[in-house]
Amino acid sequence: MNKKIVFYIILSSFVSSIISIAAYSKYYKEEISRFPLYSSSHPISKNKLTSSETSWNNYTKYPDFTTIVEKTIHAVVNIKNYSRKYNNNSNTDPFDFFFGFPDNFGNRERKHQKNDITGLHGSGVIISPDGYIVTNNHVIKDAEKIEVTLNDQRSYNAKLVGTDPSTDVALLKINEKNLPFIYFSDSNKVKVGEWVLAIGNPFDLNSTVTAGIISAKNRSLGILREDNQSAIESFFQTDAAVNSGNSGGALINTNGELIGINTAISSSSGNFIGYSFAAPSNLVAKVIQDIKKYGKVQRAFLGIRGMDLSIVDSFNLKNFNIKTNKKIKPQPGFLIIEILDGSGASDAGLKSGDIIKSIDGVLIKGIADLSFIIGTKHPGDKIKIVINRNENNKIFNVILKDLQGKTKIRKKEEMFLSKILGATFEKISLKDKKDLGINYGILVKEIISGRLSTLGIEEGDVILSINGKNMEKPIDVNNVLKGYSGDVTIKVFKQNGQIYIVGFEMN
Q: What does the pLDDT read at residue 47?
């Protein structure tokens, strides 16, 4: 009898130990996974997915993503862009630029009168329970009405909070509470080869999920720079199937966190041929936080022009006035060809011919790495750059500036003129006024998208007056138009020396 009692005591202790170890292991994994991956300021989701929820099917030996999909698919929405611009008088679909979508796909015909409002589809991701949604700028471009449909088929008219063509990101808002949403993850920690899921609405087929891996990082395709020289391209490349309509949808990791916004494919047919591209979450997060807080992205610039060292053999550096004693060989890095006056790079002492090797400890292989890291910064931020000059490494501390050469964040009210007109301006020096033969005016520094671009006004033109008020400095635009409603008349001094008068109606 005593032996039986001892046996049961030992057996009970053994079982208790197994249970305790299992419980501790589960607790330990959950505690690890609950650490905020994006930043210490990010709230921690009570529904945070753990790595154990990505199980493996014992029969197929493939990962099972069902739990992750169930917890994220309801946070991806269908976005419909209603615009008179895209009707049967135009052969251009705004998605053709990124995805392509032949007009005869599925024998579909567009039968619209000239002034009919045509609906075009894309995707978006809910990023907060109170209705903020991130998508691509090209999804909602030129929209007169934006309709958002949730996965449960509830529909809402969305407000456009702001856009950033430089990164092809837009922020929307719908009036609703307690919505499902997806947390951001730190895209810098994404590794080539890891599993990812793409969720969106390809060909207007709602709630489609595809799986793949990260094929490459920091891809620069040149598609955004065709329309915007300040564009930032540093895409994730993935083999998860993405097609027309996925634009603006979610790219998530195996923890169910947002690591990117699906943006583009490279395809002659316009349909998926094996790889697609997504804007990384860290860049997207910076853009939408700026839009929400300041009304516009606070873009920082290093103030240089140059080229990737990987293609240096294709150019004769003497044509760029770069003097070097030894031949520069193709290698990781970015070659500075020109330093812009008054820029942070100029102030810090960088020179033409310098090779950027790293920024804040991050290796710079080329323009994609460089534009990404600068794109996540604000004017006034300090960065540490390692430069190779005459085969010697030197360290420079650079304070970044905006296009106007300022290091301060511009307040929301100062952003009004840029948001309404779709442009930024700068004061003209007395010397430049004399050279141009004018006594007043402000220079159009950058055209984004908005009123001025539709009026034919270009970068380098000079705004002489608005509603008869002479322009002397950029804030004058704000003083004339803030709170104004009615016809707006603009006198423009074009770069060819001619003067034009253009106008639009402001509500």
A: 38
- Closest-CA residue to 264 (of 391, 136, 350, 140): 136
> Annotated catalytic, 112?
no
Identify whether the C-beta of residue 148 lies closer than 8 Å to the C-beta of residue 172.
yes
Written as one letter, the residue type at 450 is G
Tell me, yes or no, if 33 is annotated catalytic. Answer: no
Question: How many CB atoms are located within 10 Å of the residue 302 CB?
Answer: 28
Residue that is written with structure tokens 């005016």 in the block: 441
Per-residue pLDDT tens for 341-352?
A: 889 999 999 998
pLDDT digits (tens, 9 = 90+) for 453-473: 788 888 889 999 999 999 998
**Sequence-separated (6 or more) residues with CB below 8 Å from residue 229:** none
What is the spatial distance between Cα 327 and Cα 329, in angstroms, rounded to a whole number? 6
Structure-token match 């990737």, residue found = 308
Residue 50 exposure: Cα atoms within 13 Å on the Cβ side: 12
Active-site entry in 83, 93, 123, 138? 138
Question: Among residues 247, 371, 418, 465, which one is catalytic?
Answer: 247
Asked if 333 and 357 count as a contact pair (C-beta separation under 8 A), the reply is: yes
8 Å CB contact between 476 and 469: yes
Q: How far apart (Å, rounded) are the C-alpha atoms in residues 21 and 206?
A: 43
Report yes or no on whether pTM surpasses 0.90: no
Percent of the chain past pLDDT 70, that is, above it, reads: 72
Question: Does the annotation mark 138 as catalytic?
Answer: yes
Q: Are strands 250-252 and 195-200 parallel, antiparallel or unpaired?
A: antiparallel
